[in-house]
Amino acid sequence: MFSLSSLFRRPADRLAGAAPGWLVETVRPAPARPDWAAMARVAASVTGPLIATLAAGRLTLGLLPAMGAMAAALADRGGSYRARVIRIAGAACGGSAGYMIGHSARGLGWWTVLVAVAVSVLSALVSVSGAAGSLGGLQSLVMTVLGLGVSFPQGPVTGASAYAAGAAWAMVLSVAGWPLRPRAAEESAVAGAYRALACLLERWHTGRAEALTAFDAALKKAYDTVLGARSAALGPDRERTRLVALLNQAIRVRNALISLIEEGREPAPEIAQAVASIAGALAGEGTAGRPKRLEAVSPALRAVCAAVNDTVELVSGSEVPSGQEPVREAAGPGARIGRLWQRLRYGHLARVYTVRLALCMGVAAALSELHWIERSYWVMLTVALVLKPDFGSVFARAVQRGIGTVVGAMLGTLVLFVVPYGPGILIPLALFAALLPYGQQRNWGLMSTFQVPLVVLLVDLLTGAGPRLAEIRLVDTLIGCAIVLVFGYLPWPASWEAPVGPPFADAVAATARYLRHAFEGGPPCALLHREAFDALADLRTVFQRALTEPPVVSRRVTTWLPAMTALERVADATAATAALTEHGRDAPSPQAVSRTAASLEEIAEHVRAGRPVADQVRLTADGPLEPITEAVRGLHDTLAGRP
Fold first, then answer.
1. FRET partner for 511 with CA separation of 20 to 30 A, picked from 232, 349, 355, 490?
2. Which residue range or ranges hold the Integral membrane bound transporter domain (predicted)?
């Protein structure tokens, strides 16, 4: 039997049969504990404009700034200050533009249907440009709907300015620590990667696979954070280079530890203590200590000792070796526009979602013009929030949002019954706003549980509709979820497919590129290693999202799990063999490396084209390359016969 507690479970529980996947999909990976700083920041962002307008005797004038602050605060999802500012600015610009469009088109009758469809198409197209575009596209659609449906006293320009002012207030709170610690986010991300590495050693005998996956995810996040921060230096940025060097060292330690498995050895306790001290030193909790002198009697032990000792020296302030800054692809305006055009022109998935979003928004807007439902703009708002092309499973969001709305509407009704209209409403507003980041971290159901009463209370400040507003919100939201399922999910064959094949092929191809250069060393090899493991991390995300579809789809997705495990073995075997080769083991012949990489590339081509891989040429063992060829054979056998 379903219970509310299932809304709090993680997607990993899906594999253990804890609950249906469509009840546990997260918006972002679930944290170990609530982020109290983020919760306080969102509460202050939302209530700040309301307190200011209350002091001026015009509480309702704080509604639009509070909405802008809420959107901006939720757009702040961590990372470097530069990335945070860009995402918040995207949400602010999109919401302000959407309000101007919606308010200007209000009262135009059936023409508002065309406006809603046009804005939904533009929103979907802008979303493919990246994180800032996605947030801006969503907020433009949301505020267009609110501008069409809510009678705000402010005009188009005044209201848009008020919304932007609220977003600016939230941005100030988000970047308040920048003058004191401009590298705080990057340093924290690097320390988090080393904490995950220390956790891997702690869980070496119990839960090593999960800890290894967690480390790879933390490493990817750290690289994205460090490389996403714009350097303030005119020339080489020594601090940024040092952080990149620390992440490169974390890869060396990880691969050296995996090489111990190849030799049938275990990490010594001294190694675990040294890595824990490194993580503590990076977090400002002491100094890094070298491991006690160990007898390095094998290539794997030499690799581990060398990697850990070099990391201790780097943390202790030694000069950063040259060539640590990875080569990055040029990303000027022309290159970015070109990539965006390619996504729009050849992105079949983006085009399909654009049509689906436009169709559902058109149906919802037409329904609102029939005046069958009171405050039917909530229907359009639900469609906009549920049918977003880059937020995972549509089915899971619709079901979770329906469940969360039921609970949230009950909470909103209770608050409106208990708390009289007026300044006292700021207390529950602050509470629900503070809980939003936690709900956002967990899943759509819990986020809706906190978001619904918050929005209901904000709108009640303007309308004074009382407890009945929560009931209206509940009915309209359920109708919106039904529109999404009936018009945006069921009729589309792509909804019932498991989209694991293309990203799986990309991960195989990235692993093949890494294998071709794994024994050459240097920055290019480190970059290819990161690309391969990033592709594997992206594949896990796609797999996790696909598990949240109904059983008819998720059952097909689970058949990919053995192949994913086999591919991870290939990548780990490549990393371990490269570490062993660097510290004394014989290097494989270039011909054997080329044959094995070509085999992987052939697998990638077959999977991408939807052809079976049974006709692939079998590989023979070749001395130092035997662990890799054995892993590739296992991958081939797992995929044999699969179209």
1. 349
2. 364-487
pLDDT score, position 485: 81
In this structure, what token pair is assigned to residue 535?
Answer: 């592709």
Amino acid 108 reads L
Residues 156/59, Cβ–Cβ less than 8 Å: no
Looking at 419-467, list the stretches that DSSP marks H as alpha helix, in order from N- to C-terminal side.
Answer: 426-442, 444-463
CB of 316 within 8 A of CB of 287?
Answer: yes
| Model confidence band, residue 22 (pLDDT cutoffs 50, 70, 90) | very low
Q: Which residue has the higher pLDDT, 400 or 597?
A: 597
pLDDT tens track for 216-273? 989 998 998 888 776 554 445 778 888 888 999 999 999 999 999 888 888 988 899 9
d(CA 468, CA 451): 17
User: Is-contact 195 187, C-beta < 8 A?
Assistant: no
Mean pLDDT over each residue of the chain, to the nearest integer: 79
DSSP 8-state class, residue 293: P
Contact 449, 408 (CB under 8 A): yes
Question: Smallest Cα–Cα separation from 485: which of 365, 383, 358, 409?
Answer: 383
The alpha carbons of the chain give a radius of gyration, in whole angstroms, of 26
Q: Please calculate the CA angle 140-177-78 and round it to the nearest 5 degrees.
A: 45
Please give the average per-residue pLDDT across 374-400, as a whole number.
Answer: 71
CA distances from 334 to 238, 330, 338 (A): 29, 10, 6
Half-sphere exposure of 357 (CA within 13 A, CB side): 30
**Torsion angle in degrees (nearest 10) through CA of 79, 84, 90, 95:** 110
Answer positive or negative: Cα dihedral of 77, 80, 81, 83.
negative
Six token digits for residue 143: 């505020």
- Rounded to the nearest 5 percent, the helix, strand and coil shares of the chain are 75, 0, 25
The Cα–Cα gap between 24 and 442 comes to 8
State the burial class of residue 232 (Cβ atoms within 10 Å of its Cβ: 0-12, 13-18, 19+): exposed
pLDDT at res. 509: 94
Residue of 36 and 42 predicted with greater confidence: 42
CA 423 to chain centre: 37
Question: What mean pLDDT is predicted for residues 19-30?
Answer: 43
DSSP, res 284: T
Residue 115, number of CB atoms within 10 A of its CB? 20
Q: Pull the structure tokens for residue 491.
A: 């009729």
DSSP state string for 469-507: HHHHHHHHHHHHHHHHHHHHTTT-GGGGS-TTHHHHHHH
The answer to whether the CB of 384 falls within 8 A of the CB of 146 is no
- The DSSP string of 523-581 is HHHHHHHHHHHHHHHHHHHHHHHHTTS-HHHHHHHHTTHHHHHHHHHHHHHHHHHHHHH
pLDDT of the residue at 600: 93
pLDDT above 70: percentage of residues in the chain: 79
